[in-house]
Amino acid sequence: MSEESSGRRNLRMPNDDEVFAVVTQHNGGNHVTVRCQDGKERMGRIPGRMKYRTWIQEGDVVLVEPWDWQDEKGNIEWRYSEQDAEQLRAEGHID
């Protein structure tokens, strides 16, 4: 069965130091508040390479890489489309 006929797409999965998160609040500029899969709320920073190309809104599913030196903050590494987020939910990767 091909990828197209099953409807399943290969999605970017988190590396060892990344976690799934849901954007709960847009704080203006390049900062958002995210609720991570590990149960923590973090301040997410949208890097310059994503800032104008990828619009991040409340409710979006993203990948966050927490900072080594300050665990309550992290960088947004990837944003999933609504279809990709539904697939992740269906496969049990996120709540």
Describe the structure in your own words.
Pfam families: eIF-1a. InterPro entries: NA-bd_OB-fold, RNA-binding_domain_S1_IF1, TIF_eIF-1A, TIF_eIF-1A_CS. Seems to be required for maximal rate of protein biosynthesis. Enhances ribosome dissociation into subunits and stabilizes the binding of the initiator Met-tRNA(I) to 40 S ribosomal subunits. Belongs to the eIF-1A family. With about 100 residues, the protein is of the alpha+beta class. It has one domain (about 10-80): Nucleic acid-binding proteins (OB fold (Dihydrolipoamide Acetyltransferase, E2P)). It is about 20% helix and about 35% strand. The protein has a five-stranded mixed β-barrel with strand order 1-2-3-5-4. Mean pLDDT is about 85; it is low at about 1-5.
